[in-house]
């Protein structure tokens, strides 16, 4: 099955993209594969575009222009992009529409939440909320977000294609696997009996502690107060959270030595709580309820999508997986696919892995490129165990398919990482872990030698921070000292060689990246850097509480509602730069004059301009209105003046992006977009804590991001923070478990023989002193969780440490670098990797000992603040002129009435009697019909039958279903042509004669209805008026004005004299001469 699969191991910085390009280009050049026979998947659209462009360039260099052009027909993109194309191509076989509607990312979560809300009954919600309280999940008045647990279950269920039967099986096995650690149920002890006993013993113990004069310690006093509080809770609720029973079960450690005998009875009784029916019922009920809600919500969501003919990306993956089992599809793809190429295979989800395995069976060749050491997206569904099974089934990797060279890092860093991670990954052969550095101190064929200054210092740097005096070692101390160390580093910057540059230069702030374990840690580090006067480039929340966003939102709210006085105050404070006391005084004065006309603040410049904009933006879209406010009020200049201009401009751009995203979302959901809707959309982002600020990467800002976000990036200097983190080996929560951990994975059915385990922890963070929990901690489940956590954090550390090009800085404090120690110790080596007060390290590679550069700080808890300095933002003009008014290019009503407003005409001259037209006939359309017939009937000697057919045809076109008579058209046309032939015999008649000219810089481009040439450069004009009499009376001045304009333009165009001009009323059979 895997005979055609080539696995390529590409470690960090080893030239993975180059290898992908070379593999594909070589196969195309040799003719082994066709451009149209390639399927290549990448992790991002950007990576797909880069791969395609590199291969095209390689083909063009070989003179293969036809193949380079045909490469556009290859399926190169993300997994989702590939799946959509396959579904649309094989829509009939997949049972979907060829124009299947894919629910966009973000919309799917909202729609699923609606589905979950539709299936959860109030009774279920009450039960779950009650269980959250008894299980200690909801504490201190703060409700536990159990819906997040449901969503977590749903993601795993759908991401692993678990069926309804799999869900029921997982629910049952989750309880049975946990129940084996619980003590037997005490059938003779009900919850009521147990609580009565607890209440009595609690009271006795409290009174004994209170009366124990031999123990006057603060510890015992606090314990007594705690028991009194529990007595109050028990009296109020008749039951305590199980967490409290767990605490009472080891209460001897909470009192002084002289009181321990007094609490022994309470402790012994509390330790019996795991055997109560109620305790075990609560755990099982909570787990079962969450499984049931997840199951029903998935079913409701599926029904919602089926009714509307929509699918989301998870459905798409399942449909593609099923589609690849279809015989016709298999035959078609087997004939077409020459090459399947998978990039970053270690990050694929279980369903995606199954898809790739099916496609590999159909393709002539398969090439998978990646690095198992960088599989860090387990929280997104990636499962290293399945990937390891594929690699094991495929056999040892050919040495030719191992990228051996590191093109990124200096030799010190490569050797240190080799020594550390060969030990950290004992299950991976050393040749697949270690790399050979290209960047040597003395230089190499592909890298220049390092300067003496750079070569004199090791690329591995150890910063050690100690508190001054009795200062407590805390996270705040570490962050503030780290920020100070960064400031000192920038004050004396070392030489670096950034990517793409050929000469060394001094380090800049933008060359530094600080990696943290969590987003919260990133925010804290960024704030510490700000205290030291160092800008930080960080994607953080709080967009809508920034001053620039507040000002822009106030302007939009005022545009929406002129009576929004809070927005007026914000505009005056931020935009007009009034101080708050003056704004309050101004408001009070206005209220004292409330009988006066006008709105508060209308005299202010910005608010006055907003009032003007409101008049002309009523039909603008949200994004258009936002951009107009930004431009016309010059809000960018105002925001930049507050400092940190680049970040503020980035935040304003983020608001513009969100406006477009909101409009796109409305378009997808077939709803109307409005300014009010946009403001509600932003409010929803705030509630979801998803109002992320713009991340402005710039040379003067230090990059602060998580280890996970750093994957695929690199910087000259990387600071790996949080190295003292403890191991996160939690056996509680969700986990996908194989039926038999020792059995090999069935690669024909990689998603089979697995189930979802969910265990709820009833004790919060209490981990010891409870027998059944201690037994669980010694079980195979905990051992597996610990081993998985060790492997996961080793992979994450590998990703972080291999981002550095020139300097890798490892800061430590009192807690040392336990994370690094654990990784190094996976190979059986017990040592303090980053020992303080020494430049030696345990790292050695190929006989080369790697030393570190050691720097030591002894600092107070808080560092003195430094002012922030920012780069200036250039603007073209000091003051923008704003929008300049321009006269209209064409002719409008105002121009006509201003220029020819005094027009007059003579009495009507009838050339025919007014026809007796049925009142039901549309007068305006009848007039146009008569005018059109007169134009077609202008020739003499036309066949009478042809004239009648023409009249009847025009009536059918202009007046369908109306009682109009063709005789009226025939009679009026004959009378009109007799009229002009009698009054101007021999005149040459032109109908719809084009006129194009300019009058007072206004352009006129229209056809005159009738033009009679009298000879001797003399003409007469006629302008058809098809309005009913009442409407004509309202527009008479406008019609006469336009006729006079036509006469003036005709005089220019024809270079002749206009003797007369007439308003012609074809439906009434008369003309009125207009005085020129």
UniProtKB/TrEMBL annotation:
Keyword field: ATP-binding, Helicase, Hydrolase, Isomerase, Nucleotide-binding
One GO BP annotation of this record:
recombinational repair
Q: Residues in domain UvrD-like helicase ATP-binding?
A: 1-410
The record lists the catalysed reaction(s) as: ATP + H2O = ADP + phosphate + H(+); Couples ATP hydrolysis with the unwinding of duplex DNA by translocating in the 3'-5' direction
Reading the lineage from the top rank, the first entry is Bacteria
Can you give the residue ranges of the UvrD-like helicase C-terminal domain?
430-712
Q: Which GO terms describe its molecular function?
A: 3'-5' DNA helicase activity; ATP binding; ATP hydrolysis activity; DNA binding
Q: Where does ATP bind?
A: 10-17
Cell membrane in keyword set: no
Tell me the enzyme class: isomerase
- Please give the PROSITE patterns that the UniProt record associates with this protein: UVRD_HELICASE_ATP_BIND, UVRD_HELICASE_CTER
One matching Pfam family is UvrD_C
The entry's cellular-component GO terms read:
cytosol; exodeoxyribonuclease V complex
Q: What is its EC number?
A: 5.6.2.4
Keyword presence, Cell membrane: no
Q: What is this protein called?
A: DNA 3'-5' helicase
What is the protein's species of origin? Neolewinella litorea
């Amino acid at each position: 099955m895997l005979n055609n699969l080539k696995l390529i191991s590409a470690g960090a910085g080893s030239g993975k993209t180059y290898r992908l390009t070379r593999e594909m280009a070589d196969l195309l050049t040799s003719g082994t594969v066709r451009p149209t026979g390639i399927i290549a998947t990448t992790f991002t659209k950007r990576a797909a575009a880069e791969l395609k462009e590199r291969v095209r360039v390689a083909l063009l260099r070989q003179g293969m222009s036809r193949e380079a052009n045909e490469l556009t027909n290859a399926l190169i993109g993300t997994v989702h992009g590939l799946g959509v194309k396959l579904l649309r191509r094989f829509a009939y076989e997949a049972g979907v529409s060829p124009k299947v509607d894919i629910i966009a990312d973000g919309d799917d979560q909202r729609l699923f939440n609606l589905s979950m809300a539709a299936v959860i009954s109030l009774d279920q919600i009450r039960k779950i909320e009650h269980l959250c309280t008894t299980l200690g999940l909801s504490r201190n008045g703060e409700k536990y977000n159990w819906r997040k647990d449901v969503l977590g279950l749903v993601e795993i269920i759908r991401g692993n294609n678990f069926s309804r039967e799999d869900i029921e099986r997982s629910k049952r096995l989750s309880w049975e696997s946990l129940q084996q650690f619980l003590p037997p149920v005490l059938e003779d002890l009900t919850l009521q009996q147990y609580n009565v006993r607890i209440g009595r013993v609690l009271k006795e113990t409290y009174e004994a502690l209170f009366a124990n004069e031999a123990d006057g310690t603060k510890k015992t006093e606090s314990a007594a107060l705690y028991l009194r509080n529990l007595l109050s809770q028990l009296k109020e609720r008749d039951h305590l959270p199980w967490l409290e029973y767990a605490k009472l079960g080891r209460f001897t450690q909470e009192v002084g030595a002289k009181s321990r005998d007094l609490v022994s009875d309470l402790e012994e009784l509390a330790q019996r709580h795991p055997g109560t029916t109620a305790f075990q019922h609560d755990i099982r009920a909570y787990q079962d309820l969450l499984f049931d809600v997840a199951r029903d919500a998935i079913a409701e969501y599926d029904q919602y999508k089926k009714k509307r003919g929509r699918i989301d990306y998870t459905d798409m993956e399942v449909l593609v997986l099923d589609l690849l089992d279809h015989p016709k599809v298999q035959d078609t793809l087997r004939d077409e696919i020459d090459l399947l190429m998978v990039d970053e295979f270690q990050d694929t989800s279980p369903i995606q892995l199954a898809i790739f395995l099916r496609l590999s069976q159909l393709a002539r060749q398969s090439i998978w490129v990646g690095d198992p050491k960088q599989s860090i997206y387990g929280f997104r569904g990636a499962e290293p165990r399945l990937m390891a099974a594929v690699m094991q089934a495929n056999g040892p990797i050919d040495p030719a398919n191992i990228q051996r060279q590191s093109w990124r890092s200096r030799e010190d860093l490569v050797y240190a990482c080799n020594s550390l991670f060969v030990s950290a990954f004992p299950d991976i052969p050393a040749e697949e872990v270690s790399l050979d550095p290209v960047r040597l101190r003395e230089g190499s064929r592909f890298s220049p030698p390092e300067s003496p200054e750079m070569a004199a210092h090791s690329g591995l740097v150890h910063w050690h921070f100690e508190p001054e005096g009795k200062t407590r070692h805390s996270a705040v101390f570490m962050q503030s000292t780290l920020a100070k160390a960064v400031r000192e580093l920038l004050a004396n910057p070392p030489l670096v060689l950034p990517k793409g540059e050929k000469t060394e230069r001094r380090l800049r702030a933008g060359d530094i990246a600080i990696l943290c374990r969590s987003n919260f840690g990133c925010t804290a580090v960024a704030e510490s850097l700000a205290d030291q006067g160092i800008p930080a480039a960080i994607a953080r929340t709080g967009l809508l509480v920034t001053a620039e966003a507040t000002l822009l939102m106030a302007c939009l709210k005022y545009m929406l509602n002129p009576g929004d006085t809070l927005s007026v105050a914000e505009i005056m404070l931020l935009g007009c730069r009034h101080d708050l006391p003056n704004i309050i005084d101004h408001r009070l004065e206005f209220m004292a004059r409330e009988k006066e006309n006008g709105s508060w603040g209308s005299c202010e410049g910005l608010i006055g301009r907003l009032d003007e904009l409101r008049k002309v933006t009523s039909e603008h879209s949200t994004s258009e209105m936002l951009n107009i406010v930004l431009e016309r009020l010059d809000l960018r200049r105002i925001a930049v003046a507050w400092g940190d201009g680049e970040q503020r401009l980035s935040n304003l751009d983020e608001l513009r992006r969100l406006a477009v995203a909101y409009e796109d979302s409305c378009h997808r959901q077939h709803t109307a977009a409005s300014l009010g809707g946009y403001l509600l959309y932003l409010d929803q982002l705030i509630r979801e804590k998803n109002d992320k600020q713009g991340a402005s990467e710039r040379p003067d800002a230090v990059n602060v991001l998580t280890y996970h976000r750093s994957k695929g990036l690199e910087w000259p200097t990387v600071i790996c923070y949080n190295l003292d983190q403890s191991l996160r080996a939690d056996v509680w929560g969700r986990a996908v478990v194989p039926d038999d951990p020792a059995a090999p994975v069935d690669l024909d059915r990689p998603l089979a023989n697995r189930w979802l385990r969910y265990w709820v922890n009833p004790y919060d963070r209490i981990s010891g002193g409870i027998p059944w929990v201690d037994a669980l901690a010694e079980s195979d489940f905990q051992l597996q969780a610990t081993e998985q956590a060790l492997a996961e954090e080793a992979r994450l550390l590998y990703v972080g440490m291999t981002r550095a090009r020139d300097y890798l800085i490892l800061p430590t404090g009192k807690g040392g670098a336990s994370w690094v120690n654990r990784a190094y110790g996976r190979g059986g080596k017990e040592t303090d990797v980053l020992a303080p007060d020494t430049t030696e390290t345990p790292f050695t590679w190929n006989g080369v000992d790697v030393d570190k550069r050691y720097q030591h700080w002894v600092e107070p808890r808080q560092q003195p603040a430094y002012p922030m300095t920012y780069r200036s933002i250039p603007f073209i003009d000091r003051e923008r002129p704003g929008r300049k008014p321009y006269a209209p290019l064409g002719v409008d009503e105002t121009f006509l009435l201003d220029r020819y407003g005094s027009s007059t005409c003579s009495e009507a001259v009838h050339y025919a009697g007014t026809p007796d037209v049925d009142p039901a006939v549309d007068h305006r359309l009848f007039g146009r019909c008569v005018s059109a017939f007169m134009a077609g009937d202008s020739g003499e000697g036309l066949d009478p039958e042809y004239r009648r057919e023409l009249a009847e045809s025009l009536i059918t076109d202009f007046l369908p279903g109306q009682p109009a008579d063709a005789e009226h058209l025939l009679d009026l046309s004959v009378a009109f042509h007799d009229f002009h032939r009698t009054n101007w015999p021999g005149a040459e008649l032109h109908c719809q004669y084009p006129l194009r000219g300019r009058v007072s810089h206004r352009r006129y481009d229209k056809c005159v209805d009738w033009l009679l040439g009298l000879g001797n450069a003399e003409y007469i004009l006629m302008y058809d008026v098809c309005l009913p009499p009442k409407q004509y009376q309202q527009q008479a001045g406008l019609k006469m004005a336009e006729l006079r304009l036509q006469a003036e333009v005709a005089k220019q165009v024809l270079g002749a004299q206009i003797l007369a001009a007439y308003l012609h009323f074809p439906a009434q059979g008369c003309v009125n001469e207009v005085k020129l």
